[in-house]
Amino acid sequence: MTETRRAVFLDRDGTLNIERDLVQTPDDLELIPGTVDALRLLADAGFALVVVTNQSARARGFISEAELDAVHASLRATLEESSVELTDIVYCPHHPTVGEPPLRADCECRKPEPGLITSAAAEHHLDLSRSWLVGDAARDIEAGRRAGVQTLLVETGKGAEERSAFAPSMVVADIKAAAERIIALG
User: Fold this and answer.
1) How far apart are the C-alpha atoms of 17 and 156, rounded to whole Å?
2) Which residues contact 3 (CB under 8 A, 6 or more apart)?
3) Is the CB of residue 94 less than 8 Å from the CB of residue 104?
4) Could you say which DSSP state residue 4 is in?
5) DSSP strand E in 36-169: where?
6) N or C: which end of the chain has fewer CB within 10 A?
7) Peptide bond just before 102 cis, omega within 30 deg
8) Which residue in the list 11, 136, 140, 174 is annotated as catalytic?
């Protein structure tokens, strides 16, 4: 039997990198200050790190798969320069009403659905009962709840606005504060 690990599932835009209308190239990806240190803290504490991100720009035709892969390769490279390794980056390319099939689709992977989290957990033998999701939007928190992980809302990106729209159980300023809270809570 394979031993399961605990994980932190991380939204990308607004949580790890500065929220923009569209991150289309590696140059558009600017990490929020403290992101690298936060992820290093989590990795050093034994957490698998999995980015889970909605990327409907694929369905809307604003970014190709190759362009999105280049953005994610750049994110990995930036983190690896600081000895931080991501376990995986998984994304939902779908949109329920825009684009052409198969990208125009109702799916189980578009947050707030939990599919990105549950499929990554199965693939990488991650223990959802000991894991977390960190995001800046209500849909992130809802996906985490549906997947059975503990959740933290960061006030970066959409977080400060979305906080008033629902009642998240835990709110912190940014990814660095999230990492510190997760580690403190064990």
Assistant:
1) 9
2) 125
3) yes
4) P
5) 48-54, 88-92, 132-135, 150-154
6) N
7) yes
8) 11
Would you give the DSSP letter of residue 140?
H
- Residue 13 annotated among the catalytic residues of the structure: yes
Orientation angle between helical segments 35-44 and 175-185, nearest 10 degrees: 20
Task: Tell me how far apart the alpha carbons of residues 49 and 33 are, in angstroms, rounded to a whole number.
Answer: 18
For 24, the 3-state DSSP assignment is coil
CB neighbour burial string for 43-80, b if at least 16 within 10 angstroms, e if fewer: beeebbbbbbbbbbbbbeeebeeebbebbbebbeebbe
What is d(CA 11, CA 17) in angstroms, rounded to the nearest whole number?
A: 9
The amino acid that residue 106 corresponds to is: D
pTM, full prediction: 0.95
Phi, psi torsion values for 21, nearest 5 degrees: -60, -40
Cα–Cα dist 146/44, whole Å: 27
Q: What is the pLDDT of residues 80-135, one digit of tens each?
A: 999 999 999 999 999 999 999 999 999 999 999 999 999 999 999 999 999 999 99
The single residue listed with the structure tokens 């223990």 is 127
